[in-house]
Write a structure and sequence with these properties.
Blueprint (H helix, E strand, L loop, with lengths): L1 H13 L9 H14 L13 H22 L8 H9 L2 H8 L3 E7 L6 H6 L7 E5 L6 E5 L13 E2 H7 L3 H12 L6 H4 L3 H19 L2 H17 L2 E8 L14 H18 L6 E8 L1 E4 L2 E4 L8 H17 L4 E7 L12 H4 L1 H4 L7 E4 L8 H11 L4 E4 L7 H9 L4 E3 L1 H6 L11 H6 L4 E3 L13 H11 L6 H12 L1
Parallel strand pairs: 1-5, 5-6, 6-9, 10-11, 11-12, 12-13
Antiparallel strand pairs: 2-3, 2-4, 7-8
Helix pairs in contact: 1-3, 5-20, 11-12
Bound molecules: zinc ion (ZN).
Length: about 500
């Protein structure tokens, strides 16, 4: 069966162009296929010189991996990432994608810039790092403090250094911490019952180490290291959504958002000095529903009544930042679980404030990160377009709205696709059914990103590019698609 499929793909390939003398049926068929594929993203790209040889190799490996996956029933895009990551890592296609320049990675959250391994094996080794397992859910959380913090309602705080030395093996201890924070489990389909269940663990993930990032001695190092990891994985530029959480010192002194922004910009400049082939990074200031308590953050749930006054002040701050730091701040977004929080419509007056006052503030909204067509989360798409969003994150419902699809194309608004994120958060399982298949076959502008990749152990960009290339795109999609995606991301 598997070899049959590979055979039929090869046969179809050989008939892509009408040939003089071809039987009329086959000629018409080839013409129809040609016309259809001419809409696909990358179809107008021209390969040059050695790119043809790379493409031949890439497509040979792609077909081999498709055939192999069908034999074993473990074709990576059709199976959960946690269960196929190891085989992706050994794939020849992945190896090519890994070393490929990927352009700009435009949908990344600050708490997933660095991987968990660096966080555990570097940051938690620093003096003054405390940890505890929460009484309620048993998830580990950290914070820095000058002396052992008193036990609180959340947990009993212990010095990480002491806990590690009590363990038989430091490596085992570090692995235990990493496993506790990560969403990776052996059987994700049954372990996470539904989207709300996986989001509750996802919220623990943010809570675990948020206070590590916002400690003054760590923040810049973490940002720099994150940019380094993305650069190593082929990214020329990264755009990072951040709530600019207030930074704290060991004695509990805290600083405001602008202080955080300034420190991140310094880290970006340091990175650019060291990596002259990179275009560095920018920040999308993002309003997040979180609250700081005792130097660590808790995410607020059920915030339907969250006041519009706060939103107004955040937008005003975003306008200030955008004007004051034009080379480092890209615009504004609202980050949340869309099914649980206020939709964009709730803030339509506040969100119109920049245009009403003649101030430029680009928007990059998460919208329609939902399976529910017609829900308020889905309708965020309408508002995002009306509010002139420059790009839109996820947009799973876009293909269900013909008028919106036209608008996306007419206004050239790219959709930010993060394949693994949608699978882990249970929006779909088999990535061949990802709604972006439609976007790619119709040539809508899309960019590929990794969202919160640290939570699920993905690389900064390569794993998501692999899943898109092997599962979301056509079997026949080749190097021209990858080239187009990289160029579009920079454009
Ligand atoms: Zn996101």
């Amino acid at each position: 069966m598997a070899s049959d499929l590979a055979f039929s793909i090869v046969c179809v390939w050989s008939f892509v162009s009408p040939i003089v003398g071809m039987p009329p049926f086959l000629s018409s068929r080839a013409q129809l296929l040609n016309d259809d594929s001419s809409y696909a993203t990358g179809s107008n790209v021209e390969l040059k010189g050695k790119e043809w040889a790379v493409n031949d190799l890439l497509m040979m490996l792609k077909l081999e991996e498709i055939s192999e996956g069908l034999k074993t029933s473990l074709y990576p895009p059709a199976v959960h990432f946690f269960q196929t990551k190891a085989s992706i890592d050994k794939s020849g296609v992945f190896e090519i994608i890994r070393i490929m320049p990927k352009g700009a990675i435009l949908h990344v959250h600050d708490d997933s810039l660095v991987d968990l391994s660096w966080l555990i094996r570097n940051v938690t080794y620093r003096p003054g790092c405390y940890m505890c397992f929460t009484r309620k859910r048993g998830n580990v959380i950290f914070k820095f403090h000058e002396k052992e913090p008193a036990a609180d309602e959340e947990c009993d705080w212990k010095l990480v250094k002491t806990e590690r030395s009590n363990y038989v093996d430091a490596d085992e201890f570090d692995n235990m911490l990493e496993n506790n924070i990560s969403l990776i489990v052996e059987d994700p389909t049954n372990f996470y019952k539904n989207q709300y269940d996986v989001w509750s663990y996802f919220t623990d993930f943010f809570q675990s180490f948020r206070s590590l990032f916002s400690y003054s001695d760590v923040m810049q190092d973490a940002y720099y290291e994150g940019l380094r990891q993305f650069h190593e994985d082929g990214a020329q530029f990264v755009e990072i959504r951040s709530a600019l959480p207030p930074v704290y010192d060991l004695d509990g002194t805290t600083y405001d958002e602008e202080y955080t922004l300034g420190k991140l910009e310094e880290a970006n400049i340091m990175f650019l000095d060291d990596y002259s082939d990179s275009m560095g990074s920018k920040v999308i200031y993002s309003r997040t529903n979180l609250l700081m308590r005792n130097y660590f953050y808790v995410y607020l749930c059920h915030c339907r009544d969250k006041d519009r006054v706060t939103m107004k002040s955040k937008i005003e701050l975003a306008m200030t930042f955008y004007q004051k730091y034009p080379d480092f701040v890209s615009g504004f977004d609202i980050v949340k679980h869309e099914n649980l929080y206020n939709p964009l419509l709730f803030y339509w007056e506040e969100l119109q404030m920049p245009s009403n006052t003649g101030v430029d503030l680009p928007y990059f909204f998460h919208a329609s990160e939902t399976n529910w067509q017609g829900s308020s989360a889905d309708e965020n798409l309408f508002d995002a377009i009306l509010l002139n969003a420059k790009r839109i994150g996820h947009a799973y419902g876009a293909v269900k709205h013909p008028v919106l699809l036209n608008e996306l194309k007419k206004k050239d608004i790219p959709i930010e696709i993060s394949p693994i994120s949608g699978q882990v958060l249970k929006h779909f399982y088999d990535l061949r059914n990802h709604p972006a298949s439609h976007m790619l076959s119709h040539g809508y502008p899309v960019v590929v990103s990794s969202d919160n990749r640290a939570a699920w152990g993905a690389s900064p960009a390569s794993h998501d590019f692999y899943e898109l290339f092997m599962g979301i795109a056509s079997v026949k999609a080749d190097l021209r698609l990858l080239k187009q995606l990289a160029m579009d991301s920079i454009r």
